[in-house]
Amino acid sequence: MSGAMTDGELAAHLAETAGRLLLEVRRSGVFSPGALGKAGDETANAFLVHALQDARPNDGLLSEERTCDGTRTDMSRVWIVDPVDGTREYGEARDDWAVHVALAIDGVATVGAVALPGLGLVLRSDRPVPVPPPGYPLRMVVSRTRPAPEAVKVAEVLGATLIPMGSAGAKAMAVVRGEADIYLHSGGQYEWDSAAPVAVAAAFGLHCSRIDGSPLVYNCRDVYMPDLLICPVALRDRVMAAMAA
What we know:
- InterPro entries: CysQ/Inositol_MonoPase (IPR050725), Inositol_monophosphatase-like (IPR000760).
- This protein is of the alpha/beta class.
- It has helices at residues 7-27, 33-55, 87-91, 149-158, 168-176, 191-203, 236-244, and strands at 60-63, 77-85, 98-105, 108-116, 121-124, 139-143, 161-165, 182-185, 189-190, 206-209, 224-225, 228-232.
- Helix 4 links the parallel strand 6 and strand 7.
- The longest helix is centred in the first third of the chain and has 23 residues, at 33-55.
- The mean pLDDT is 95.
């Protein structure tokens, strides 16, 4: 069946299924809070890796929970997955965690799905809908445990309200869903943290870039990504000006 699916359908199906598996692991009640995150990560990773290797055997694969052998960097099509984005939130039985499944083509996050299992939602690049207009005052999502200083300062310049939230996927999808207007992160991430959220956000018509406006490039040998900006195109210049200020 997976061979007959489009890339977008496959990404959404795998993200949703991994999310259901994670909820079952959490509902089992056999893990301590400290062990739950590890069990969830390993379970979802095993499912996603085996499913993608079977469904798309000629594509590359990068996962947070899998050692990279380096072969992916020579490939045009590379799947980038984060089995549990927000392991801490998942372990604490919160809703602000996600499952990321993305396909980067020639370095661009082209196809993606972000499952928010706690909310019963899957946002996908192949089914975009209009994003609600920015609110007033503007709302900016930031880390609930360590807000980036740059984001806090930009919020002050823009008069934006800060919304603390867990995983990167949850924060990005808050902008996609119209629950926030700006996601600016400068504390450092990795490719799997943003590939699927960026693919979805871009498909929904949002601006996605580094905080200096330069493009986000995926499937690099070094998978570290220093910063990220997701916002409506209409707010891009205001956010950039606030950063400069």
